[in-house]
Amino acid sequence: MLDLRTANKDDAGNPILAPGFENTGGHHPLWHGHLYTVTAGATNIFDELVTTEKLLRGGWFTLMDGNAVVGDYIEESVVDKDDVLGYFSAYGYTVGVDVLELKKYVKTEYVHPKSEGIRQEFQANSVFAVVAGLYTRTIYESTGGVNLQIAVTPFGYE
Description:
With 158 residues, the chain is mostly beta strands. The chain has a single domain (29-157), classed as Jelly Rolls (Sandwich), CATH 2.60.120. 3% of the residues lie in helices and 46% in strands. Strands 1, 2, 4, 7 and 9 form a 5-stranded antiparallel β-sheet that branches. The two termini are 32 Å apart.
């Protein structure tokens, strides 16, 4: 057992401790990539159904070709489209028409047009839970004149 009175200390006398691993509650890491074709000059929305409970930590995207332009950006969020959480009536929403955005964890992340093939990461130092039946949503705002392809990989635990 570590005795904090005699442990290694910094110049101010504070104990030096290494961080431990996070507890994922029995969940295991999972990377599941998606390849999307983005329509030029439009707001593109890509939804993926969450089929099992997940703990999301972040992810990354990769431009698969050189067609992105300055001004393009990506956003990532978790949404409820099917009233899984039962909040639609409180907001006057209709299933099949409305979408309730629950958490936007990447907002207006501008794409570097010359980053083709380079992973651009968005990571958090913690996780947040997403229940089955919700959707992860990728929005790509294209300001260019040529369609492009993007690979998006959420990182989390299942």
